[in-house]
């Protein structure tokens, strides 16, 4: 049932008409997906994840991404992998349940409607996590959705 509340689609971050990366989020993490350039050996890529900063590129070249993150992440639980010509970066949110409007500070922000949809989906994920015997995949909110991080006393930590 929880997989029914997983992100249905990725958000595109477009800059100057070109897709820089795709991204999605869950209660606990933000995932970035970067299409790798062809004919570059996988060992040539690097990714440096800091608490509030991300750097991605090809060794010996200026970074492809070198930006502050929208919110702090847990560096000990964040990582990156290369899969089928895609760099997948998993950023573990420091504040579980926080809705990110974009992974990169001040860049590619979701519009208010898309941000509201993300917040609603994360709130339903929270309900599903806290009540595993119930199916919240068809649930809907009327009006403003509460913040999944702080609603009714906040997220319980395990």
UniProtKB/TrEMBL annotation:
It comes from Eutrema salsugineum. Transmembrane segments: none annotated. GO terms for cellular component: cytoplasm; nucleus. One of its GO terms (biological process) is response to stress. One of its GO terms (molecular function) is unfolded protein binding. Residues 16-104 form the CS domain. This is CS domain-containing protein.
């Amino acid at each position: 049932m929880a997989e029914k509340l997983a992100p249905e689609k990725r958000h595109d971050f477009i800059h100057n008409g070109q897709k820089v990366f795709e991204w999605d989020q869950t209660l606990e993490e933000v995932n970035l997906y970067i299409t790798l350039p062809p004919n570059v050996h996988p060992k040539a890529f690097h990714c440096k994840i800091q608490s509030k900063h991300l750097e991605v590129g090809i060794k010996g070249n200026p970074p492809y991404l070198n930006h502050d993150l929208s919110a702090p992440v847990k560096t000990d639980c964040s990582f990156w992998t290369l899969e089928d010509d895609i760099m997948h970066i998993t950023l573990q949110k420091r504040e579980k349940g926080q809705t990110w409007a974009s992974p990169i500070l001040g860049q590619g922000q979701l519009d208010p409607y898309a941000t509201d949809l993300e917040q609603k989906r994360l709130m339903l994920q929270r309900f599903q996590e806290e009540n595993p015997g119930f199916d919240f995949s068809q649930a809907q909110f009327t009006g403003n959705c509460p913040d999944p991080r702080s609603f009714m006393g906040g997220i319980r930590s395990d």
